[in-house]
Structure formats: C-alpha cells, structure tokens
Amino acid sequence: MARAQYPGDEGAVPFVRRADEGDRFNMFGGLTFVKATGEETAGAYGLIEQRANAGMQTPLHVHHAEDELWVVVDGRLSVHVDGETMDVGPGDVAFGPRGKPHAFRVEEDASRYYIVRNAGGESFFEAVGDPAHDLSLPDPTPTDAQLERLNDVLETYELEILGPPPFEA
Questions:
Q1: What is the pTM of this model?
Q2: Contacts of 86 (CB under 8 A, 6+ apart)
Q3: Quick one: DSSP state of residue 55?
Q4: What are the boundaries of each domain within the chain?
Q5: Which domain of life is it from (predicted)?
Q6: Beta strand spans in the chain (E)
Q7: pLDDT, tens digit, 9 for 90 and up, residues 143-169
Q8: What's domain 23-163's superfamily in CATH?
C-alpha cells in the first residue's frame, strides 16, 4: 500500500533556525520572528514566534482561508475563539479554525508563544509589521502605520476585522 502524499513531501530542505534567529518584525506590540516559511516547508505550514508584554492584543477578526494554532512557551494568553475565552499557559495549545471569529491578548509580561498558520500566512507579519532592529519588546499598542498597512492587506489575506478586542479592561 502506497503512503499518501502530504504537503512538504517534495522540495523541503532541512534547516535549523536558532533562538533569536529569523526575520524580525514589531507587529501590533509583539516582537515577531519568522521561524519557518511556507516556502521552506514546501507548502506545509508557516511558523512564527512572538514575544510580548501584558496588554498586547488583537482585534476580533476572522481568517476565511487559514487556521491558527497557538503554543504558549512562557507567560499566559487569553484566547477568544467563537465566543469562548480560554486561559492558555505554558505548554498549552489553542486552536482557532478558519471561519471562526477570534482574538488573543497577552496577560503576562515576557510571554513567548508560537503561532502555526497555513503556508504563506507568515508573510502577513512582514506585510504589516515594522522591521525589528533589536530584541526589545515594543509598546503593546499597534502604530498608526501598522493599522494602515493592515487595512491595505485585508483582502489579500482573506482577513476580516469584526471589531475591537473582546476582552474586559
């Protein structure tokens, strides 16, 4: 019996991207590292690492074409998916399926987490973020320029902003 073919079977080349390596962007108050691209994984997925302090959060939004998976390494997130808010801590995984409204907020300073997205989704962070020249964490509020770039790429990434973050102050 032949094994099924999966994305990544053809064209992927092994690599190691060390801690603090990868293209870096300041994005919506988080320091983002691109750890693996869809191109590098031959279309299997994209992986980013984010580091942020308490208060960094996303608006309520929906991805119409991609899923999102969060893996918390350090700190704590509140992840809101389809009307339910979950507390996600070290070692925990949360999943936001495509088509489901979601948002997340960083609850502890020095939080670190990975986000797995469909291949190509990692390019969103370069399209909207600002190049990060060092490892310091940015202010947890998105800049006006980031918000403008976000509006410019909503259609490209099949992303819809539904409203403000759904978290209590």
A1: 0.90
A2: 78, 79, 80, 94
A3: T
A4: 23-163
A5: Archaea
A6: 23-27, 30-36, 46-52, 60-63, 68-74, 77-81, 84-88, 93-96, 102-106, 111-117, 130-131, 159-163
A7: 999 999 999 999 999 999 999 999 987
A8: Jelly Rolls (2.60.120.10)
